[in-house]
Every structure is written in C-alpha cells, then in structure tokens.
Amino acid sequence: xxxxxxxxxxxxxxxxxxxxxxxxxxxxxxxxxxxxxxxxxxxxxxxxxxxxxxxxxxxxxxxxxxxxxxxxxxxxxxxxxxxxxxxxxxxxxxxxxxxxxxxxxxxxxxxxxxxxxxxxxxxxxxxxxxxxxxxxxxxxxxxxxxxxxxxxxxxxxxxxxxxxxxxxxxxxxxxxxxxxxxxxxxxxxxxxxxxxxxxxxxxxxxxxxxxxxxxxxxxxxxxxxxxxxxxxxxxxxxxxxxxxxxxxxxxxxxxx
Length: 256
Description:
Rossmann fold, 256 residues
C-alpha cells in the first residue's frame, strides 16, 4: 500500500519508511490548523526500534506509513537521515509534542481524551492536567487494559466523547494498529496520536532523562540504566539491526 502524503510537507523515505521533515513547532502548527478546520489528522513517529519492527511486521508498517504526519522520534533516526543524505531537521518526541499540545488545547479550548496505561496512572494524568488547565480540558479517559472484543466499544466511547484530541498511551504495535483500524469510527476526533509511555512520565512513575542526555540522543541509555533486565536485550538486538539497515542502505547506494 502507498504511504499517505501531507500537503506542503517535504517527506523523505528512510530505510523504507516515510518521514516528514518537520520541527516540533511546525508539527504543532499543522495539527492546530487541522483541528481548527475540523479535519482529522493522524500523527505517529518512528525511532530505531520501531523501524526495525516495521521491517518484520507488515501490519505495523501499514499502520505507520498511512499516518498523515510521521515524525522522527529518536536521535538515531536523525543521525541516520544525515548519513544517508536525507536530513530530517530534528527529533519530535511524543511527550514533547503532547506537552505542547496541552498548552495549545488550554489556549484554544480544545478537549482531550486520554486512553492507555493503568487506571491509576491515566486517572492521575487527568487529575494533573485538570488541576493545571481546568475540568473542561478532559473529554474523558479510559485505561489501556482490554480484550480484543472490547476495542470497537472503546472506539465508540472515544467518538461519543466529542474530544478534539486523542492521546493513546500504549506500546507498539498496539497503539499504531488501534489508531489505524478505528480511525473511521472516531473520525470526528480531529487529532489522534500515540504517546507510548508518556502517561507514566507525566504521572511521575517513570523519570525522563536529563536534558543533556535528551539532546545527546542518550535517552535510551537512561532508560536502560533504569530497567536493565527488561531492556538490555531489546536495545542490544534492536540497535544492531538498525545499524545493519543503515549500513546496508548506504553501501547499496554506492554500488548502484
């Protein structure tokens, strides 16, 4: 299936993955325009691990490439884009974009539906934002634990909330596939995006890396230090496969 394209946006193809050349503020501007004009826009992002997964999971690949905005989340993807001479301006992380959009939502009176994480975590996220911005900022919330046969009713719940924005706090490929599969069910929600583990960070369960590590592309190392037993294999295998993909593409070009 062909990837969707966005108007007036330069899109490069990196390791068989389309990526939009957008900064954080340019991304926010496009989203704000879509919400103000009642147009649904689906945003996703890719990092090294997800690009590797997309090469092995056709459903995830299809769900990602059909998003309206695809940001580079992960400094390794930005570095790879420069190595392959298809430069992306900067990384746009889900949590940074989410925080920017919450400020915009408060200013423009958008409402937000929060979906994902445990009941305790998502409830705390809603409490934090309603205390900061007022009750009307929340259109509703739902934890991320459900069976397959509950998906349709959850999508209906989101649609009936009349939210302007939907944040989905789940892992990959679950969040990408859910958003793609039910995009028509909640087509009245102008902006939808997955935010991974951002709810855990907002709620204070997980600490984010210091700014200097974020800027240096070392957030993965900070997470690895926090949870070495759970993450060492993922990063060791994932980083090796990503580097192999980059080198394969670079040298295949030289030979063509």
